[in-house]
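Note to self: the last two entries modelled the partners one at a time, which told us nothing about the interface. This time every component goes in together.
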Amino acid sequence: MSLEGKSVFVTGGNSGIGLAGALRFAREGANITIFARRAESNAEARALVEAQGVRCLTFVGDVGDEAALRDAVVGAVKGFGGLHYALNAAGAMQSVTPLTDLTAEEFETIFSANARGTFLSMKHQIPAIRDSGGGAICNCASTAGIVPSAFQVAYAAAKFAVVALTRGAALEAASLGVRVNVVCPGATTGEMWFKFKDANPERAKLVLAKHPLGRVGDKEEVADAVLFLCRDATFTTGHALTVDGGRTAG
Amino acid sequence: MNSALPPQTDKVVILTGAAGGLGQAAARIFADAGAKLVLTDRNADGAAVAQSFGAQAVFVRHDVSVREAWDAVVAAACGAFGGVDVLINNAGIAGRDSVESLTAERLRGYLDVNLIGAMNGMQAVAEIMRRRGGGSIINIASISALASTPNLTGYGVSKWALRGLSRYAAAEFAGSGIRVNLVLPGALEVAMIKDASASSGKSNFAESVPLKRLASAEEVARVMLFLASDAASYVTGAELTVDGGYTA
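The predicted structure of the combined assembly is written out below.
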């Protein structure tokens, strides 16, 4: 129980990589605050987290809503006596649409959910972590934040932005005792991948073929990397760690 | 000491450059995690490092740049511990050269150890790892492989080459379940350069690091432990910086 008494804030924490990350921190003894959109999923996630023997707070909200985010961070600090780590896993996947057919509305929705949401999350987490004596943030981008895919350029632009936000925030937050890193998962057993695969079975085969390890990553493998960056990688900040089965090595 | 990373009790680890500062720290962290260690160095001082871990470690004196010299290393791993699961190409040499002062001979010297040494190691263990169903290879480069560092031309170019080799190997070995990753430490290499050239400036360098300090050897070693462990089971072809934000 290496993180007993620590407080962790997870956006998008009721499903996929967010929930896997929340459970990974919980297994180490940390108390968890989940900020995510669906109340019923929050309740289910909370039960799973509490089953690890730790405490869990949930807040229903969207990362586009700054006031809700701010209040949730304040709630985490009050509830658990501070904030030490954050995992920003909230995000949205783009439909498979050629750039020339993509609507401005969808571009804005995707860019906002991923990039603006990560910005607002860090804006309120960094001071809270600083005031708690320091810690670390892990954002969640994608291999699309390193190598763009065709027909999902808004998603790529947003995830490139998440990587840039991470690196810039790391420079600013280093003197505050806050490290900021980002994981770049490849195809991963989260909700996004399953939806993508169901909607685009042929395309999913092509995507999978680009992963040299020959399989989809488990969300728990991404969660292990998140825990490593937050807890163990004490001299690593501003780093984009690929957890992609070699997708971006080729 | 944070010992929260997964234990390595069933892993056999070959670690080169084990007599150096980073090598000794890595040996200690892997030994504490329960790994079985084949420590190598061309410096005989590595024997004492291995002895301090008792039956958990053996030492082989060898020069990584000589391909045939790897046979004894692999034989020691198989003889003492039954195989090889992890190879850490940590041995390296550093020195100062500008583009104009660098000679072909000096460049070959860096390449022999920093690049060809790692290539030799990977070739020596690949088949054994493949037969065991996989493994983890960790190459130690430097942030000099991400940008140019003034007057570290020969050393830096050899680390850029090692970075390239790692990516090729990651792609090629993935089908065999062998993961290949690169660690790029920042400030530690400055200490190495400092030793090599007796130049000062360590504290000045720390000022230019966003975290305002240099890395401890243990912090870099802990990254190796992660990459070796099953926690990194989907991580291959990664280039992990340990530089306090210097290249962010």
